[in-house]
Amino acid sequence: MKENTTALDAFRKYKNLVLRTAYCCVGDYSEAEDITQEVFLTLHNKQPEIRDDEHLKAWLLRCTMNRGRNYRKSWKQKGRLSLDEIAELTDEKTECEYGELRNMVLALPEKYAVVLYLYYYEGYQIPEIARLLGKRTSTVGSLLRRGREKLKSELEGAL
Length: 159
What we know:
The protein is mostly helical.
């Protein structure tokens, strides 16, 4: 890709993927938009050595997940209210774009939620997820299995 248009081409091609991933990580659409913007600005400013489209996609996902993780850490430190707490305070019921199941996936610990999201929502296979996250395939398989079990018990508890 050309040096001057790498970020713009990547934005056109992967903006929805990055936005969905950011939303999965933080659960707030406006924060996900901010993270998306930051990821593409980082790509533009740093201009990392990108071999091909798959490498670019992996770089964008990794950067997005790192920013989401950083946001969640700062969010906890600042003592902000969660979406559930705001809903309780205002007594308003809001419906998420991806529905109740997606919310249940987000409620899982991050290590399970990210693996489930990449596997089911983005269609990655276990070896691909392992490369993206820098983990062994057996670890990703275990996280996927445990995440499914936790989600299943949550669903059974909700019924």
